[in-house]
Amino acid sequence: MSNSNSNQPVVSSAREALNKFKMEAAAEVGVNLKQGYNGDLTSREAGSVGGQMVKKMKPTRIMNFQRIDRTAIGHSMTVTYASMLQV
Fold it and tell me: What H or E segment, with its residue span, contains residue 79?
């Protein structure tokens, strides 16, 4: 059985961009991250940073539909649906 680390970015030059993204997400949720090891974080703090990163990465689909207004003949209204894609 091979020992592989799945924590490596697919593009090796993306590491700095991922670190910057993580720092921005931490600042948005009010978690103080430092460069290097952050073993003193609580599970809640670490989870909120990861959750914020996923929230920003997941695309949101927005669709607009024209719906006929059944209460007024000849009128229509625009209905907007927004949903996040589940992977």
Answer: strand 76-84
Domain boundaries, the chain: 12-57
Q: Distance between CA atoms of 2 and 33, rounded to whole angstroms? A: 33
Residue indicated by tokens 């997400």: 25
Answering whether pTM is above 0.70, one says: no
| Closest alpha carbon to 81 in 69, 67, 65 | 65
Say which residues have a Cβ less than 8 Å from residue 65's Cβ, sequence separation at least 6. 78, 79, 80, 81
What b/e sequence results for 31-70 when a residue is b if at least 16 CB atoms lie within 10 Å of its CB, and e otherwise? bebeeeeeeebeeebeebbeebbeeeeeeeeeeeeeeeee
The residue whose two tokens read 């006929």 is 68
- Asked whether 72 and 65 are in contact (CB, 8 A), the reply is no
| pLDDT single digits (tens) 31-69 | 999 988 899 999 999 999 999 998 888 777 778 888 887
